[in-house]
């Protein structure tokens, strides 16, 4: 396999440098040639001639090498045509150039026999002398699907359809003339591709092996230090230690390719040069390799990765013609200012659907979820995409962030909810919290496509966006009162449901309102706070003599205490106040006002803080320096009215510190005070997002939305030219 | 080559052969982009280019300037 590489090098040498006896490869004045010959050289005689002179001594050597390698090649390929190739290769020196009559004789090469099949039955022997009929037909190149690395023994890699190497002449490089001297002959493209495939971006196991074995510096043996490969011969040298530089000087090989990034370095110009044709080839090869990598890695690797699939680079956005047209027809550009209202849109009430509207508003303003959907990360793998709730969420995000101010009618969402969560179907009033949990559940189930395929059904290992954002771990410790052995379980949870003072199940050891300055809540004695509720939630609870648990170590039923704490904090925490009480005695709504802070530190309620709590040190200083457990409020869902008939509204935070009240189709600006006091309303659900991330995502969001104006500066030029000249130009 | 270097080379070979090196590279690339490292370095590059002038700066210059920062 290594033979392929070196052979192609050597062949190239002989092809470019005209072999023996005929130094005038490019000097021949060109009668109009319809073929992809070397017009670029016409202006480049001096450097090439110089190179040639230096090369002459070498060509004899290299030509011999060529023949030897061809024979070795023949053995490797084991094909009948190999013999023909040997002959053809022998003719390389004379065939690899344009003769004065203007006919191109294409240089032959192994594995490239396909490209010259003008007549399918043509024998290789004849190919070297064959003159292409008239112009070099485009199909010529199209028939060259065999990757040079893929000829012979590599048949298991199906030749990908390469975009045809254009039959037009190579564009001369504007800055580096040395590159132009490289782009000589018919094979330079193919040979360059071989280099890329074998040494730079290896897609197949074979090319990877060849890279692993051969890509070390020929001088010092390192595989680091910015290894480069000479473009004219088989030499690898490292850049940092200047070994490739030495080679370039001694051998007068001016060009080398960086094996890490694929850039071409010219030692004469002492810089990386960017030649359009070469860049194009490089991009294609890189894309191919990445595709191969991606297709093999999804089968082989089991590592979970929340990225858009390894092997999928972030592609740069190059506008296509239809996109340019679209942009031309829609000249309005959006700028993000502090007063922008994109993302605020009312939702029509379809009949007691306020519970759904509120949750939708809250979800669409959840920072990370918003970023996920607005960057179009969902890949639907449902058998019928019309039933996919995630797709519907995606389109909902699009609608709400479209800038359209009129209220949106979420009938499709409602329909899907009815289908997937039967218990919520119908027009009677529903519970917003129930809807939230049901919605998260359905979204989680439908997210299969985004979760690298596997483990979507395993609740412990799901990596879908819903789980990444909302799932926390609730630790339950049951302590046997006899032996004090602790049995711990950790359950995934999407929300924290808190009992309220005044409920018949409540048990409030601390009088509400005391010691509530931990989170900076407004400390009004008598008014319970969210922290109070959380404290109660995480206190050790005697299970009572009627609820004995079997203790594993005591092997008997013992009284025990149970304590809930947070083991793993979710990115977005939902706190639910259990206002609706359905007990044996009564069904009622608890309307006690609970005060809550804008920022919440969950450290005291974590499993790791249990120790300090038992010692009575509940309060941690608010500036504990650790921001990991701090949350920032971004949505509040309120319920007004009674159990039988009521109305849901929500407050959502928009763009860092602006709050808006969402009452179905009506959105009004609100103040923080409105949100926190919610006098007369009783808040039911609060969504908070982890602090550092909020800032991060705002930054990302601004980046996301600003991406358009940034690019539009460039597009503006193009569009300007559009309007000025009235013609659409392709992106240069 | 001493033993340490030999081992490194062997490991590197294996990594390349199995394709893991590419995967790791891509993973690292994505992480660096996500955390903003790439953008910061890009901004630094722009500064260097502004200082030296677009016509005269070479890749070697840039490498020398930003390698320590990176």
List its salient traits.
heterodimer, A: 732 residues, alpha+beta, 8-stranded mixed beta sheet, 5-stranded antiparallel beta sheet, 21 strands, 35% helix, 15% strand, elongated, disordered N terminus, disordered C terminus, B: 70 residues, mainly alpha, 4 helices, 83% helix
Spell out the blueprint of helices and strands.
The complex is a heterodimer of chains A (732) and B (70).
Chain A (H helix, E strand, L loop, with lengths): L3 H13 L28 H33 L3 H10 L1 H4 L28 H4 L10 H5 L34 H6 L5 H13 L4 H10 L12 E4 L5 E3 L4 H9 L3 E4 L5 E3 L4 E3 L2 H25 L20 H9 L24 H11 L2 H8 L14 H12 L10 H10 L11 H15 L18 H6 L1 E9 L5 E8 L2 E3 L31 H8 L3 E2 L6 E3 L4 E3 L1 E9 L3 E6 L2 E3 L4 E3 L9 E3 L8 H5 L15 E12 L4 E9 L3 E6 L2 E5 L1 H6 L4 E9 H35 L7
Parallel strand pairs in A: 8-13
Antiparallel strand pairs in A: 1-2, 1-3, 3-4, 4-5, 6-7, 6-12, 9-12, 10-11, 13-21, 14-15, 16-17, 17-18, 17-21, 18-19, 19-20
Helix pairs in contact in A: 1-2, 1-8, 2-3, 8-9, 8-11, 13-17, 15-16
Chain B lengths: L2 H16 L1 H15 L2 H16 L6 H11 L1
Helix pairs in contact in B: 3-4
What does this structure look like?
The complex is a heterodimer of chains A (732) and B (70). Chain A is an alpha+beta fold. Chain A has 22 helices and 21 strands. In chain A, strand 18 (646-654) and strand 19 (658-663) form a beta hairpin. In chain A, helix 1 runs antiparallel to helix 2 (45-77). With 70 residues, chain B is mostly helical. Helix content of chain B is 83%, strand content 0%. Chain B is built from four helices and no strands. Chain B has helices at residues 3-18, 20-34, 37-52, 59-69. The chains are: A alpha+beta (732), B mainly alpha (70). Chains A and B meet through helix 9 and helix 11 of A and helix 1 and helix 2 of B.
């Amino acid at each position: 396999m290594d033979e392929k590489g070196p052979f192609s090098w050597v062949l190239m040498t002989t092809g470019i440098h005209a072999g023996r006896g005929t130094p005038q490869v490019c000097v021949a004045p060109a009668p109009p040639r319809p073929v992809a010959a070397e017009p670029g050289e016409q202006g480049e005689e001096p450097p090439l001639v110089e190179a040639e002179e230096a090369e002459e001594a070498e060509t004899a050597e290299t030509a011999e090498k060529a023949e030897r390698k061809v024979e070795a090649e023949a053995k490797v390929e084991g094909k009948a045509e190999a013999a023909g190739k040997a002959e053809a290769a022998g003719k390389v020196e004379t065939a690899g150039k344009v003769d004065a009559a203007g006919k191109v004789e294409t240089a032959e090469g192994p594995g490239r026999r396909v490209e010259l099949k003008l007549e399918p039955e043509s024998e290789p022997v004849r190919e070297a002398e064959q003159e292409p009929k008239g112009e070099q037909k485009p199909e010529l190149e199209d028939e060259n699907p065999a990757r040079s690395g893929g000829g012979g023994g590599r048949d298991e890699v199906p030749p990908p359809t390469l975009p045809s190497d254009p039959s037009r002449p190579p564009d001369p490089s504007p800055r580096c003339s040395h590159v132009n001297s490289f782009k000589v002959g018919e094979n330079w493209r193919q040979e360059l591709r071989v280099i890329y495939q074998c040494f730079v971006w290896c897609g197949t196991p074979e090319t990877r092996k060849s890279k692993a074995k051969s890509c070390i510096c020929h001088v010092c043996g390192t595989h680091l230090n910015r290894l480069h490969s000479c473009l004219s011969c088989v030499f690898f040298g490292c850049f940092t230690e200047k070994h490739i530089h030495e080679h370039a000087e001694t051998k007068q090989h001016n060009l080398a390719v960086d094996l890490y990034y694929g850039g071409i370095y010219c030692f004469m110009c002492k810089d990386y040069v960017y030649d359009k044709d070469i860049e194009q080839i490089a991009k294609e090869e890189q894309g191919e390799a990445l595709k191969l990598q991606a297709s093999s890695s999804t089968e082989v690797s089991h590592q979970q990765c929340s990225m858009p699939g390894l092997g999928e680079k972030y592609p740069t956005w190059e506008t296509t013609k239809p996109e340019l047209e679209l942009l031309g027809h829609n000249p309005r550009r959006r700028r993000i200012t502090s007063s922008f209202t994109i993302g605020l849109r009312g939702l029509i009430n379809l009949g007691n659907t306020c519970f759904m509207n509120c949750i939708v508003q809250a979800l669409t303003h959840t920072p990370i979820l918003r970023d996920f959907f607005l960057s179009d990360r969902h890949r639907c793998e449902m058998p019928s995409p019309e039933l996919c709730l995630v797709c519907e969420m995606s389109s909902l995000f699009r609608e709400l962030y479209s800038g359209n101010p009129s209220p949106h009618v979420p009938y499709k969402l409602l329909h899907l909810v009815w289908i997937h969560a039967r218990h919520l179907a119908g027009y009677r009033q529903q519970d917003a919290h129930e809807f939230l949990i049901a919605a998260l559940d359905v979204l989680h189930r439908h997210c299969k496509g985004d979760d690298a395929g596997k483990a979507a059904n395993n609740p412990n290992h799901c990596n879908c966006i819903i789980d990444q954002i909302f799932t926390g771990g609730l630790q339950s410790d049951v302590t046997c009162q006899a032996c004090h052995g602790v049995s711990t379980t950790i359950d995934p949870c999407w929300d924290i449901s808190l009992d309220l003072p005044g409920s018949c199940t409540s048990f409030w050891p601390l009088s509400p309102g005391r010691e509530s300055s931990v989170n900076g809540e407004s400390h009004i004695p008598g008014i319970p706070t969210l922290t109070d509720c959380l404290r109660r939630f995480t206190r050790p609870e005697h299970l009572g003599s009627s609820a004995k648990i079997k203790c594993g170590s005591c092997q008997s039923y013992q009284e025990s205490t149970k304590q809930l704490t947070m083991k793993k904090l979710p990115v977005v925490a939902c706190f639910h106040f259990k206002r609706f009480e359905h007990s044996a005695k009564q069904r009622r709504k608890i309307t006690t006002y609970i005060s809550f802070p804008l920022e919440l530190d969950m450290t005291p309620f974590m499993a790791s803080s249990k120790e300090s709590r038992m010692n009575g040190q509940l309060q941690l200083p608010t500036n504990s320096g650790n921001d990991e457990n701090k949350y920032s409020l971004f949505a509040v869902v309120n319920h007004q009215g009674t159990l039988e008939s009521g109305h849901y509204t929500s407050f959502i935070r928009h763009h860092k510190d602006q709050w808006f009240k969402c009452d179905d189709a009506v959105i009004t600006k609100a103040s923080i005070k409105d949100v926190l006091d919610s006098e007369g309303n009783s808040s039911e659900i609060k969504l908070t997002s982890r602090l550092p991330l909020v800032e991060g995502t705002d930054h990302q969001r601004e980046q996301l939305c600003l991406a358009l104006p940034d690019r539009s500066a460039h597009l503006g030029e193009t569009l300007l030219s559009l309007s000025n000249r009235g013609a659409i130009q392709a992106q240069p | 080559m001493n033993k340490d270097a030999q081992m490194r080379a062997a490991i590197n070979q294996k990594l390349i052969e199995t394709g893991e090196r590419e995967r790791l590279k891509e993973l690292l690339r994505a992480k660096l982009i996500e955390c903003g490292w790439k953008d910061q370095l890009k901004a630094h590059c722009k500064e260097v280019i502004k200082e030296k002038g677009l016509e005269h700066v070479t890749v070697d210059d840039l490498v020398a300037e930003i390698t320590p920062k990176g």
